[in-house]
């Protein structure tokens, strides 16, 4: 089992978290991971180019939002809920609420 | 009295808000405006270059985070607390909490 590098909880910074959330594709990944719990890259990337999605996952991991671990040929991705709640209480829930609100408006 | 353009509450998007919050100088402005309530640019820019700060305020305004109105020769800036709370409940409080947490860690 491989595990991709990501910052320790105490090293997660607000500006990197917000940068990671400043892109609509990455917001979609975050929302889908919140819904699915854990997912392979393929399950949340749909038909988007693999190189582009690799970059987005890298940004999310380096910001401390997403944890990815290798299982066989797959990468299993999940939100770092507990770490984020510990570091910035209430932030992830508010972010997920904000994303959901937008969806409701668009429907 | 002049008022600088900014999006209507319903047009505020998560990705633009998060982009505006992805810079440490803009986070500092947001934190200072939360503390001061309303402030001229000079009161929250310290010794930073005016052109750079004008850009940061423009990004914050265009994202819907900050409202600026001209009074005489001054621009008075404030957070759009009510608009943001209406659009994304709990988000601004969580953001301000995240910024404060980081400060405590650094002290």
From TrEMBL, chains A, B:
Q: Which UniProt keywords apply?
A: DNA-binding, Transcription, Transcription regulation
**Which Pfam families does its entry note?**
HTH_20 (PF12840)
GO MF entries = DNA binding; DNA-binding transcription factor activity
Establish whether keyword Signal is in the entry: no
Q: Where is the HTH arsR-type domain?
A: 6-99
Listed name of the protein: DNA-binding transcriptional regulator, ArsR family
**Record organism:** Allokutzneria albata
- Lineage of origin: Bacteria, Bacillati, Actinomycetota, Actinomycetes, Pseudonocardiales
């Amino acid at each position: 089992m491989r595990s991709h590098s990501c910052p320790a909880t105490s090293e997660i910074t607000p500006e990197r978290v917000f940068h990671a959330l400043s892109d609509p594709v990455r917001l979609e990944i975050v929302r889908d991971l919140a819904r699915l719990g854990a997912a392979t890259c393929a399950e949340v990337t749909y038909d988007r180019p693999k190189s582009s999605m690799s970059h987005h996952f890298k940004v999310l991991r380096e910001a401390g939002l997403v944890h990815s671990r290798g299982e066989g040929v797959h990468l299993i991705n999940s939100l770092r809920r507990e770490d984020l709640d510990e570091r910035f209480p209430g932030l992830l829930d508010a972010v997920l609420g904000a994303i959901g609100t937008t969806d409701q408006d668009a429907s």
